[in-house]
Amino acid sequence: MNINLWNFVANLKYMGMGMLGIIAVIGVIILITVILSKMTQEKQD
Prior knowledge:
Blueprint: H1 5-40
């Protein structure tokens, strides 16, 4: 098996973009969850 190090280095950009996309989606899910939690929370007097 032949591994070309330069191909790996060239693909780091795409891997970083994928990781950034995953983090963005997780952030949106957390934000929606917090907003829905605040909207449905019962008021305590």
